[in-house]
Sequence to fold (329 residues):
Amino acid sequence: MEQSDFLRKIEDIIPSNTNLVSELCEVLDVSQDSAYRRLRGTTQLTITDISKLCKHYKISFDVFNDMDINNVTFAFQELNYSIDSFELYLQSMLKDLNLIKNAKKHKITYACEDIPIFYNYKYPLLGAYKIFYWMEAILNTNNVDNNKFNLSYVPENIHKLSAEIYDAYLDIPSVEIWTETTYLSVLKQIEFFWESGRFESDKDVIDILDELKQLLSDIQLQAEVGKKLHADTTESGQRADYELYFSDIEIGNNCVLVDLGITKSVYLGHMSFNTIATMNKKYCDLTEQWLNNIIKKSNPVSKVSEKIRYQYFRTAFKKIDEFKARITA
Fold:
């Protein structure tokens, strides 16, 4: 990759209210004259310069090795099985979303094996439960058998970060592809912990299921109006454009394609809730083709297909109500 191509990728990422020269000055700690020389190519970026820029803008070194599709480098957020590490993971997610949100052009296409993680954070109990599940069942952070869920399990700073993540996602135009099982994983997680005696009371389980039902109702409404919604369907509550598709093809893993114009990146789910990411051009292009093929074979339900949309969510609500009936029996 040429130096000019690399700098154009960064120009894609930076906010529309700034310019590349000022960004280079700040990140590389150089003068305006030095920044212009790098833009013109009269001064070559050093390895240190490239490293600083890649780290600051979360660009993988794969952008320099686009020719070999068989070797793709992925970045990931390391987790060391502690609540502090989980906070760093959320901070990294928020930084990524803000970079995407502030870019001149931005769009996310999300193939959803599970309900997109961002939505959980709108709902206090459901969001806290998901974090509890990840920390206890996946990371085993406390190493305490049968630790029971309660809202105070999650520190206030984690709640605040979570809310900021949800709010950032609302401002990014998105295409989501759901399957008939997308909502089932969280339902099975709640059921597993309930059957394992990991809730302090059945009321907590009912309240979490009510929030899950509200989450699905909100997404149904988003699909109806074609906009992400902060609170309601009025103009003040509407945010970025939203497209929802229902696919009969099983997705197998959460996959997110971020399109910033010239620059694209792919995030793949791993370790249950974490992600690995790459900007390898050929890999991103192949992922985009795969997603487009799935979309072509899927049912669009944003602003259209009211019957299909209604039936899908009615089935989801029925499964939630059936589980609630078991709890209260």
Notes: Residues 75-328 form one domain. The radius of gyration is 21 Å. Strands lie at 75-76, 107-112, 174-179, 227-229, 238-247, 255-259, 264-270, 274-278, 299-300.
